[in-house]
Hints:
Layout: H1 3-19, H2 25-33, E1 54-55, E2 61-62, H3 65-75, E3 82-86, H4 92-99, E4 103-108, H5 111-123, E5 129-132, E6 145-150, H6 159-163, E7 165-176, E8 181-188, E9 194-202
Parallel strand pairs: 3-4, 3-6, 4-5, 6-7
Antiparallel strand pairs: 1-2, 7-8, 8-9
Helix pairs in contact: 1-2
The structure holds S-adenosylmethionine.
S-adenosylmethionine is lined by residues 60-63, 86-87, 89-90, 92-93, 107-110, 113, 134-136, 151-152, 204-205, 207-209, 212.
Amino acid sequence: MNELKFKQRRKNLVSELREKGISDDTVLNAILGVPRHKFIDTALGERAYEDSALPIEMGQTISQPYTVARQTELLGIRSGEKVLEIGTGSGYQAAILCEMGADVYSVERHPELYERSRELLRALGYRARLKCGDGTLGWSAYAPYDAIVVTAGAPVVPHELTRQLKIGGTLVVPVGDSDKQAMLRITRIDENRYEEDSFSDFKFVPLIGKQGWDG
Length: 215
Ligand code: SAM
């Protein structure tokens, strides 16, 4: 399939996401700009712009476009802000954040996914900083962050991540059991106070680490 066809499919996907309630134009423009088909196996190319999660290496998934759009919308970031992603996976969400002009940091626990995404993002011209390790502990070397997004399901809010937020910063994290998680948006009000909103159910692969399912 040629690039023009993929572009048309991205436009259709954006219309579908709008109908499903995504209204932030910055997010929708980023979805229009990022070639999702490059982040999955070529054998799945035909399905790249379906609104569904798809398998990637190491038994993981590239999230459903609606989920990526919703999490990104909840982050409410502006160009130039510093954003930490936990769970690089395919690298797609990191590319969306770069496309929005964010200064992107991302942590992945599987070395294979970390290596692959690092190469791919570089090849596509996205300047994200990637690290291989346990993202439940954040990435303290570059903290504090304007926003943190967790793209795997946590049993509880990893408190180290809330500590790495700037005052006024936002953490978006799915929290629940292995079947479903509520999407929490936590805003840091001051040194010790946080405000929390909860949004409807999602289903993610597990967040595994010291402040995740293995903790
Ligand atoms: N954001 C990804 C994308 O755009 O493809 C979604 C990836 S998938 C839904 C979640 C990822 O989180 C998996 O790649 C998994 O290995 C990773 N993960 C799980 N626990 C982690 C942890 N403690 N630290 C870093 N990555 C973790």
